[in-house]
Amino acid sequence: MRYKFDEIDSSENPYLITWVIHNSRYEIKIGLVDLYPKFLSEIEQNSIKKYINDKAEENNIKIEECSVLTDHVHLIIICKKTEIETIIKLLKGYSSYMFFKSYRTDEKYRTKNVLWARKYNISFINDIISYENAINYVKNNKNKHEKTEKFDMNRVL
Fold first, then answer.
1. 63 φψ region: left (φ > 0), alpha (ψ -120 to 50), beta (else)
2. Domain boundaries of the chain, sorted by first residue
3. Complete DSSP assignment for the chain
4. pTM of the full predicted structure?
5. Regarding the domain with residue range 7-156, which homologous superfamily does it belong to in the CATH classification?
6. Model pLDDT for residues 8-42, shown as the tens digit of each residue
7. Phi and psi dihedrals of 92, rounded to 5?
């Protein structure tokens, strides 16, 4: 459902939320074990988006826009300030649980069962211009990353 900025309940605010995949920003070596970042396939991205939307619908969470990419997620959520952290934990936890239940059944992936990094970013959206810009940013984020990835591959080749 599309929410108009001026129709949002006065007790609620729109927020731009971002979180990343665990270890997606670097590779590390601990002892004899190499920890490489996980990247989501397009099928996995679509499934995670469905898990997030299903959980949001089940809990009456207002998601204005959602974009799941290979290594991070962007959401615009409309809620009370006191609810935002609980909502993020719920969506991250459920999507991670369903991801491992559905996709990572071999021992290589099940040893840790960590999909998302612990931290996340919350940006308060305080006016109609920022609101529209945030919606467009999330909607078009996948296109931006696809262009960047193609450019990087061309530089390597």
1. beta
2. 7-156
3. -PPPGGGS-TT-EEEEEEEEBTTTT--EEETTEEEPPP---HHHHHHHHHHHHHHHHHTT-EEEEEEE-SSEEEEEEEE-GGGHHHHHHHHHHHHHHHHHHHT--SHHHHTT---B-S--EEEE--SHHHHHHHHHHHHHHHHHHHHHHHHHHHHH-
4. 0.81
5. Transposase IS200-like (3.30.70.1290)
6. 888 899 999 999 988 766 555 555 455 566 788 89
7. -65, -45
